[in-house]
Amino acid sequence: MKLFIPKETVDGETRVAMTPGSTRKLVSLGVEVIVESGLGAKAGYADKDYSEAGASIASDSVSVSRESDFVARVNKPDGGEVGKLAKGCLHISFLDPFNEKELIEQLAGAGISAASLEMIPRTTLAQKMDALSSQANLAGYQAVILAAERFDRILPMMMTPAGTISPAKFFIIGVGVAGLQAIATAKRLGARVEAFDTRPVVEEQVKSLGAKFVKVDLGETGQTDQGYAKELTPEQMEKQREAMAKACAMADVVITTAKLFGRPAPRIVTKEILDQMSAGSIVVDLAAETGGNVEGVQVNDEVVTKNGVRIIGHASLEGMVPRHASQMLAANVTAFIEHFWDKKSKALNLDLEDEIMQGCLITHDGAVIHERFQDKD
Ligand code: NAD
Q1: Which stretches in the chain have pLDDT values below 50?
Q2: Which residue spans of the chain are classified as CATH 3.40.50.720?
Q3: Distance between CA atoms of residues 192 and 274, nearest Å
Q4: What pLDDT is attached to residue 225?
Q5: Which of 86, 167, 329, 354 has its CA 20 to 30 A from that of 77?
Q6: Would you say domain 2-119+322-361 falls under CATH 3.40.50.720?
Q7: Nearest CA to ligand 1 atom 32
Q8: What is the DSSP secondary-structure string of 91-135?
Q9: Closest ligand 1 atom, CA of 259?
């Protein structure tokens, strides 16, 4: 069966969904891997690396696309690209299904089986395929590195004959995968770290990394059966902001990662909170693309407030480390293919009864089959 990896067409994308290492693994399973020429240029992989791993290199993406059984890429296809896919083909990528109703209908209409990487269940069995986690982990790390680079001070405490330097104070809001990695990275660099999340189960994880959990009594909060945070009521949000204001005012660096799955991110750090922060402080907002946790944040830009606080809203911090981001993403995609690969017939078995497939397959056989995205009117 033919797997095609086209070049990414989204502006600024540096990552790819396949690496030479993962190609080798798929080829050994019996998959015929074809990559578009120049695929890995921004991630540090040359065509030669892919061909040495057993892939063929294609320069005519249209005809290869038309005869491929499955296609894997990082980003959702645009309308024109959907038209180039073969009917019945399995398309694996991030799809942003909550915001892409039209695209989903188009994929269904074209008879494509579209698997959405963000919908892969957060279960132990699917951990190897969890692209949200692999990318968030790197984004959390990179947020700290970026803040450290922009900061006009160092992070660790230093006792020197020239005097003592106190450690930088970090405050992390939202402690999922990215937040945990941000805490661990800031601690490793010697910062003093505090953190907050609305899910009470997180407190133990924060403490185990040597950081302090900021306690706020918000009443009932909890999480969904998939482990995602539930949306707070307006009263709870107000209470949270009051508590965050104190912690932000004390912090040199604030990193926000608070997200609500499938919905806009909660607005937590308001202008009033920013006004209380000191000049030179840094705020990195990892939720910028889904609306932002921070008032005034700009996607892929840096804004400096009147009182000198720098707000950074990079949409894809993991894209700043494309080699590792691609390595992890390709491993996720490969684990997904391997899970559904029938070794005997050397073919993909699109098992619709499988809970991972049920979780992430959005369109199939000419219809939108995922309940969450079906038109109910
Ligand atoms: P996410 O990106 O959806 O959100 C990031 C964090 O923001 C979450 O911890 C969430 O609780 C928090 N948040 C939401 N609203 C907030 C607010 N108002 N204030 C402060 N924080 C707020 O989360 P994620 O990193 O994708 O993780 C989601 C869940 O999935 C977690 O429970 C995580 O442990 C779980 N998970 C499980 C597995 C697995 O079992 N295989 C793998 C990865 C993640």
Answers
A1: none
A2: 2-119+322-361, 138-320
A3: 20
A4: 79
A5: 354
A6: yes
A7: 227
A8: EEE---GGG-HHHHHHHHHTT-EEEEGGGS--SSTTGGG-HHHHH
A9: 4
